[in-house]
Write a structure and sequence with these properties.
The protein has one domain (3-302): Rossmann fold (3-Layer(aba) Sandwich). It is built from 9 helices and 8 strands. It has helices at residues 3-28, 35-46, 98-108, 127-143, 155-170, 192-196, 206-217, 251-263, 288-302; strands at residues 55-62, 65-72, 80-84, 111-115, 148-153, 177-181, 240-245, 268-273. It has an 8-stranded mixed sheet, with helices on both faces. The chain is globular.
């Protein structure tokens, strides 16, 4: 690549990153929007790219929980990925995550299940965890643990880790592999990156973490291990991939999970991406780093799944 091409590529990336950050900023507006408006805005942002003609989306019920099954391309294998959407446990939906799921399905060659887990404040903790666990239990019973993967981004990333801990605690069968992108896993906001990255994260702030905690936990301790799994015992979990941006305030959530899994004898891989933003893998239609992240997820899963 010539010097001119390198410069042009860097300019293109910065433009794409700015677009991603502006998309998030448009969701939150002036900071005074109602929850109904925020939910609408997040889904609208997620649905901006059109689905390809070879993507199928089917409404299903898994473990008593409504969900969408998304499959991209003609060759879908015998594996399944459960993907928990983000949105701080108060926003987000399978409907809005169809494009993100299609990108994952295409990279994996597997169907992706998007559970419609209950949201706060209508359904505070532990409703989301109960729904997530029911879905994972049902899919493991249907596909087998060796063919089942679990993942999510932001709150969905924290929920992924909580589901694994809950399953281990219950003596339930665990999936083969997991991934958490920009996991929201500490409602105490005690990670060092909350302070060090407060000026570089345009998406999440310490104040917004406090508001989410108050809405979701409703009197439960902020360090409850199934709400803030950085405080959980993380031994005995399946291999997990953790992706985080070096500029987001949740970086340390991923770092601490990684170290806890490894110190407990488990298998964990941590990838910290420069020059990107929180939950950047959502923007595969225009952000190169997003496509890189999805490709890394697929590569990690292929090492474990048949």
């Amino acid at each position: 690549m010539t010097h001119s091409e390198i410069v042009d590529s860097a300019v293109d990336h910065q433009g794409a990153l700015e677009r991603a950050r502006n998309s998030f900023a448009a969701v939150f507006g002036n900071g005074r929007l109602t929850l109904e408006q925020l939910r609408h805005n997040l889904d609208e942002m997620m649905l901006e790219p059109e689905l390809s003609a070879d993507v199928s989306v089917d409404e299903i019920v898994v473990g008593g929980v409504g969900a969408l099954r998304v499959a991209a391309g003609p060759a879908i294998d015998d594996n399944v990925l459960v993907w928990f959407h983000g949105g701080g446990y108060v926003m987000g939906s399978p409907y809005g995550y169809r494009h993100a799921a299609a990108a994952l399905s295409r990279a994996l060659g597997s169907a992706v299940i998007l559970p419609d887990y209950r949201l706060a404040p209508e359904h505070p903790f532990p409703a989301a965890l109960e729904d997530a666990a029911a879905v994972v239990d049902a899919l493991i019973a249907e596909y087998g643990p060796g063919h089942t993967a679990v993942g999510g981004d932001s709150a969905g990333g924290g929920l992924t880790v909580a589901v694994l801990v809950d399953a281990r605690n219950r003596g339930a069968t665990l999936p083969a592999v997991a991934v958490a992108v920009s996991p929201l896993a500490d409602f105490t906001a005690s990670g060092e990156s909350v302070a060090t990255n407060r000026d570089t994260d345009p998406v999440i702030t310490e104040r917004s973490l406090g508001m989410l905690a108050a809405t979701y936990l409703r009197g439960h301790d902020h360090d409850h291990p199934l709400a803030s799994p950085v405080f959980a015992d993380l031994t005995g979990l399946p291999p997990i991939l953790l992706l985080a941006s070096d500029s987001e305030i949740l970086l340390d959530d991923a770092v601490r999970i990684h170290h806890a899994v490894q110190s407990g004898g488990g298998t964990s891989t941590l990838s910290v991406y420069p020059d990107t933003c929180h939950a950047w893998t959502l923007f595969t239609d225009f952000l190169p780093r997003a496509r890189d992240g999805v490709a890394e997820i697929a590569d990690f899963f292929r090492k474990v799944l048949p």
